[in-house]
Amino acid sequence: MKKIKLKKGEEGLSHIPNEELMSLYQTMVKIRGFEERVSSLFSDGLIPGFLHLYIGQEAVASGICENLSKEDYITSTHRGHGHCIAKGADVKKMMAELFGKETGYCKGKGGSMHVVDVEIGILGANGIVGAGMPIAVGAGITAKTNNKGQVVIPFFGEGATGIGYFHEAVNMASVLKLPIIFVCESNQYAEFTPRETHLPVKTIVERGGAYGIESFLVNGNDVVEVYQTMKPIINRVRNGEGPFLVECVTNRWSGHFEGDPQRYRPEGEIDEWKKNDPIKNFRSILTSEYHIQESSLVSIEEAVKLELDEAEKFSRESPFPNELSTLEDVYA
Predict the structure, then answer these.
(1) Residue 115: which CATH number?
(2) C or N terminus of the chain, fewer CB within 10 Å?
(3) Is residue 8 part of a domain?
(4) Is 126 a domain residue?
(5) What is the model's pTM?
């Protein structure tokens, strides 16, 4: 268990290009805005099924995916909106999919937990806990065979490390030396169960040693730390090293699903985590330490709101799929 050691001169915001800082902020704001928007639409009865919101965890997906290219792969989870947005997914198609409309990523038949866009390396969110990891191993084999420097990142929660998928995937990735970075988002709960109840170890990174891979612990609420930790690790993977395991410690502000009363959480716990809001903290750093103009950040926030307004309008006006489409895209 360790944190990445930056080379001399790499520390601090001054070594992140200005355009990347702004891109990070835009991505985080877009994720938060999307999640708040769909939460409201869900409450109004316009979105069917389940929603598992990413609010509070924005720094993880944003800091990691900023270092990725279109050709790199990710696999996501049931709480996957943030990963997909950070990787470049079209929020119009995402929102339409949540509405169950035919203009969505899966023609309205996949819903919140099954957003996929292979063209930009999103190999799918997944309603089955941990199921993205063996898919990532397959993508890792492809990436190693192609030898084009591609990186594969499966996202998963700490609850997924107690099932077979995790151990099989990490073991095979280690044996085959695949270009994979396993990213555990430790948001403190496996559905309704606190981590101390179901984990016999204090950190997930301790499990990496059993498979002979380097593991790193990151403050998942600090987008700068996430970005700077992942950058050299991703570069090492591109150069043929890997796999790696990275644990990002964060917290989900919402329940396991939208509507979850969260009676299992101690009183005041969410309020304490909200004091460490990753977006507010980053915004403060940008203005006070990097001297980004407040007006520039406001412009980003306004542009994101307009984009989400257009996505909502697009989704409301899009048609539902016809009945015959239920027989399409089905494996038999």
Answers:
(1) 3.40.50.970
(2) C
(3) no
(4) yes
(5) 0.93
